[in-house]
Amino acid sequence: MLQNTNPDDHIVAQDLTLAYGDFIIQHDLNFTVRRGDIFIVMGGSGCGKSTLLRHMIGLKAPASGRVLFAGVSYWESSPAEQQRIKRGFGTSFQSGALWSSLTLAENVALPLGEYTDLAPADITEVVSLKLALVGLAGFEDFYPSEISGGMQKRAALARAIALDPEILFFDEPSAGLDPISSRRLDDLILELRDSLGTTIVMVTHELASIFAIGNNSVFLDTETRTMIASGDPKMLRDESTDPGVRRFLNRGEI
Amino acid sequence: MSGQLNLQFPGPDNLHVVIAGSWLLTDSHPSAGDIAQQLQSRSDIRRISFDSTDLTQWDSGLLTFLARVYQLAGKHNIDIDPGGLPDGARRMINLAMAVPPHEDTGKHGEKLPLIEHIGEKALAMWRAAPEMLHFLGEVTLSFGRLFRGTAQFRRSDLMLIIEDVGPHALPIVSLISFLIGLIVAYMGAVQLAQFGAQIYIANLVSLGMTREMGALMTGIIMAGRTGAAYAAQLGTMQVNEEIDAFRTMGFNPIDFLVLPRMLALVLVMPLLVLYAGIVGITAGMFVAVTIFDISTFEYYQQTVRSMAWTHIWVGVIKGTVYGMLIAFAGCLRGMQCGRSAQAVGEATTSAVVTSILFIVIAASLLTILFQQLGI
């Protein structure tokens, strides 16, 4: 179902309501992620950030409303169409979610082997590149259980970018990373956006990252169970009319 | 359109790499093999430069190629002049090269010779023995604390576990015991009928079910059902660091997790064995009455005559021992579990295999023991 939308609008949420059974997590979310945005989903703990992400990556159907990808409504599409849309996603989950029975190289190689016609030797090279990009060169033959949590997270990112996705979803990318790795991750995200035009959607409350790389955002509120602000996080910090948003973005010092 | 590669030599020591067309991951494009060859044959090359003016689009396809060129240059000690590359590609490659590759410790992927491999396995098995003894010791101490009343665990946990291993296991125990009773009765009866001694079906079934089969079958069911569950639960807790959380808060995980599980199975197994016996005998009666024309009362009389309390006790003791062994194996494998989904699977498999092995050994030993004692 193609909707009439601006070609620059990559992801559009229309009147999205998220619920588990009768329990409404968030209601009436309306926001637009433009192509090449680094879009931040923020809000206090338990406000439904990760739930929103799960709805965006097609893991959970919304209670009502729509999510459009390049004008196509995901939940009203045929399974084949959904599969095609999902092929353009890369997702890095909160705790990595690496497949523990596979080595890091095999983890990254799996989507490459399934969805491209690359020869095994080429796949090996692409895998090495992706691991090098996240700072894990030389860790190809390690199993996820043999590396630290922060490294698992970076390896998960390498897997998420294996296919050069159009949209990259992150759940808490920098939680558990040291400041230098965290900074490198920010650089990598910016570079992916600048060089490959990847649209980035990330759930985070790392203020340093939010201001360093975010250029668009939505702020979910726990009390009213809906979004109370959206736009550039730097502007929200200084100009938002909502004291809650300003307090959040100024670490409560206001 | 696919990617093109053109190698030029503008100076004696300069390799100029012209990249054109589309270098996408999904396109076909040349490999870095040509460059490797040139560097191999012309040892005077000291510098590699690029020209990407006719490059239309690129992604990881180009980056992979460049990463390979950089690697080759590093190997041959050649300078790279990245000036001619697209800005984004240059920055991405710099990111990829920012962290030097990890030097592998060599423990991965190395293949041991066969003899050494066997030796390693044998040593690992040898090392596992004290581990098992250590766990046995801890469990024994924990039971000691239980009897002194100082063991720390939640009584409600114990009740929940008992409910799970007892009442919830009744359907499968009923089904299997009924079928076993049916089979024993039928197989026996066919033979006994040749001598007109069908009435002895009752002896066969009641003795078989109470002394051996009831306990054995219940043991095997519980190994698959409960032993596996224990290993999976404790293993997953190990993965989530829940067991470490108990330790750091001063709870003894053996008391808190292993003790109630062992207690539950030890308490429930005798009851399940008795129940399995009753179901099996009922199944035998069903066969005798419907197929071999023995009246219900006759069968009942014969059963009562053939039974003795010792038979029941023997079965119950065996069942209790099996229960203890199953819980021990399940908890042991769960507590030994590594920190991955893979490890939980291995722990669960190992728990069932170990339980059944223990059961078979215990069954043999107990049978010999009771024989020698004349019970």
Q: Which terms would index this structure?
A:
heterodimer, A: 254 residues, alpha/beta, 6-stranded mixed beta sheet, 4-stranded antiparallel beta sheet, B: alpha/beta, Transcription Regulator spoIIAA, 2 domains, 5-stranded mixed beta sheet, 5 strands, 8% strand, elongated
Please explain how this structure is put together.
The complex is a heterodimer of chains A (254) and B (375). Chain A is of the alpha/beta class. In chain A, 37% of the residues lie in helices and 24% in strands. Chain A has helices spanning 49-56, 79-87, 104-115, 120-133, 149-160, 179-196, 207-213, 233-239, 243-249; strands spanning 9-20, 23-34, 38-43, 64-69, 72-73, 89-92, 167-171, 199-203, 216-220, 227-230. In chain A, the strands form two sheets. In chain A, strands 6-7-8-3-9-10 form a six-stranded mixed sheet, with helices on both faces. A four-stranded antiparallel sheet of chain A has the order 2-1-4-5, with helices on one face. Chain A is globular, with a radius of gyration of 18 Å. Chain B contains twelve helices and five strands. In chain B, strand 2, helix 1 and strand 3 (47-51) form a beta-alpha-beta unit. Chain B is elongated. Chain B is α/β, with parallel strands linked by helices and 375 residues long. Chain B folds into two domains: 4-98, Transcription Regulator spoIIAA (2-Layer Sandwich); 132-373, no CATH class. At the A-B interface, helix 4 and helix 6 of A face helix 2, helix 3 and helix 12 of B.
The N- to C-terminal Cα distance of chain A equals 46 Å
Largest sheet of chain B: 5 strands, mixed
**What is the residue-mean pLDDT of chain B, rounded to a whole number?**
89
Order of strands across the main sheet of chain A: 6-7-8-3-9-10
What is the count of structural domains of chain B? Answer: 2
Beta-strand portion of chain B reads 5-15%
- Quaternary status: heterodimer
Bin the helical content of chain B. Answer: over 70%
